[in-house]
Amino acid sequence: MVILEKLDLLFINKMNPEDIIKLYDLKPHPEGGFYKETYRSTGVFNFSCHENSYTGPRNYSTAIYFLLTSSCKSKFHKLGSDEIWHFYLGGSVTIIQLFENGRVEKVVLGQDINNREKLQHVIPAGCWFGAYPDSETEFSFLGCTVAPGFDFKDFHLADYDLLLNKFPDHKDLISALTK
Ligand code: GUN
């Protein structure tokens, strides 16, 4: 019995990204990585088109599981709502934010909270952002929540040429996170 429990623990500790993809039925995301929506509020904001940037009704809030493996990244994109990233399992991941004024901010999500890694981070609406697992990381298992809720109509993947034209000083970063 004790040996079995130890084997179980070994198995849990050895969890790999393929296990997580299977367990949660994650699917490829257009920005890179794998995801599964876990929550979509039944309540809806009835935005009219001229009220703000939303082009119609949006759920109050949504949540997803999101997985990045060592061989993938979240490419530069922006959303119409603030998005909160939550760290769950695995190794650390660096989020890169590129603001309208050209400022770049890097944030590391991870469990080493005594070493400036964060368990949660908010990316403001309209900010270009992407992410990559850090060098020692096999996978990062995360959550992303959005309010008003996620809609692909509010999701914009960056185009290399357009972004480079806007932010010529950040060629390497833009190249790394758009291709
Ligand atoms: N649903 C589909 N894609 C996404 C995403 O990138 N973020 C969130 N929060 N929900 C999604």
Please outline what is shown here:
The protein is of the alpha+beta class and 179 residues long.
Notes on the structure:
The chain is of the alpha+beta class. It has one domain (17-176): Sandwich (Jelly Rolls). 18% of the residues lie in helices and 38% in strands. It contains four helices and 13 strands. The strands form three sheets. The chain has a six-stranded antiparallel β-sheet with strand order 1-2-5-12-7-10. It has a five-stranded antiparallel β-sheet with strand order 9-8-11-6-13, with no helix packed on it. A hairpin with a 5-residue loop joins strand 1 (27-28) and strand 2 (34-40). The longest helix has 12 residues, at 2-13. The N and C termini lie far apart (50 Å). The mean pLDDT is 93. The structure holds guanine. Guanine binds next to strand 2, strand 5 and strand 12.
The hetero molecules present are:
guanine
**For the CA atoms, what is the radius of gyration?**
18 Å
Number of strands: 13
Instruction: Characterize the biggest β-sheet.
Output: 6 strands, antiparallel
Query: CATH first level: which class?
Result: Mainly Beta
- The number of distinct helices, counting runs of at least 4 residues, comes to 4
Roughly how many Å apart are the termini?
50 Å
Instruction: Report the CATH topology name.
Output: Jelly Rolls
Low-confidence stretches: none
**pLDDT averaged over residues:** 93
Output the CATH homologous superfamily: Jelly Rolls
Q: How much strand content do the residues show?
A: 35-45%
Q: List the strand order in the largest sheet.
A: 1-2-5-12-7-10
Along the chain, the helix and strand elements come as: HHEEEEEEEEEEEEEHH
Percentage of residues assigned to helices: 10-25%
Structural class: alpha+beta
From the coordinates shown, what is the CATH architecture? Sandwich
